[in-house]
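Ex. 9. Protein: RRM domain-containing protein.
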Amino acid sequence: MKRRLKEIEEEAGALREMQAKVEKEMGSVQDSSSSSASQAEKEEVDSRSIYVGNVDYACSPEEVQQHFQSCGTVNRVTILTDKFGQPKGFAYVEFVENDAVQNALLLNESELHGRQLKVSAKRTNIPGMKQYQGRRPNSYFGFRSRGPFMPAPPFYAPYGHGRVPRFRRPMRYRPY
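Predicted structure tokens for RRM domain-containing protein:
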């Protein structure tokens, strides 16, 4: 029994060594300092960037770059698109210098392709923060607030087999 236990421990040690070797080769071992460095890097890039709203759908990144060229050296222009490749109507412009952002904010409400642009400083997303609340539960369908870790009671629909009315009819008076 002791011999078998020793074999298992040796095998586990060999597996740990192999796992560490693979992680080194793949570069998947990351320090917490490298993730905080990337977060700081994102914040630094966002401080050099602006949000441009109400961009014309036919507008190209080169035209947006030319429009903001007077503010400073433009590093990158990103016009966001939907899943079909159509522009969403807003863009992000990244500058090389930080002071170019202040110059670009002066171009708020300027016109490009006959549309009035909305220019503001780009904000940094905070991971894990939700923008909106989800749908509120409807008390008509049997929602009751519960304390933490309490299972939901079984819900029996009054109409059976998933048939739910869209509205409630007012009760009519029926004497007999």
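Check your answer against this statement. The beta strands are 49-53, 74-81, 87-95, 111-112, 115-116, 118-121.
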